[in-house]
Amino acid sequence: MTGASVITANRLLDGRIVWLAPQGWSEAIGQARVFDNAAVEDAIKQARAADTNTVVGIYGVQLDPDATQITPLTVRERIRAFGPTVHPDFAPVETPHVH
Known about the structure:
Low-confidence stretches: none
Oligomer: single chain
Order of helices and strands: EEEEHEH
Number of domains: 1
Distance between the termini: 25 Å
Structural class: alpha+beta
Strand content: 25-35%
Number of helices: 2
Number of strands: 5
């Protein structure tokens, strides 16, 4: 499998969407660690084993190969990463447009 992915989850403390970064979990997808798709399943297993008390729902998210920054491939994951599509005031600071 070619391409790249990031790993996401929900933080247990408050339910926020978080992204696996080099130094732990971050609320900003721009800080996420990018994995080659061939390595992402092993990274997910490691994250699940290490973070049982801080996050739930850990899974990989495919990245758009044509994007100039870390951008999920699917609209669903873009909304999770960058916020609702209804009004810019509700989106996080880091906000590329959802197509």
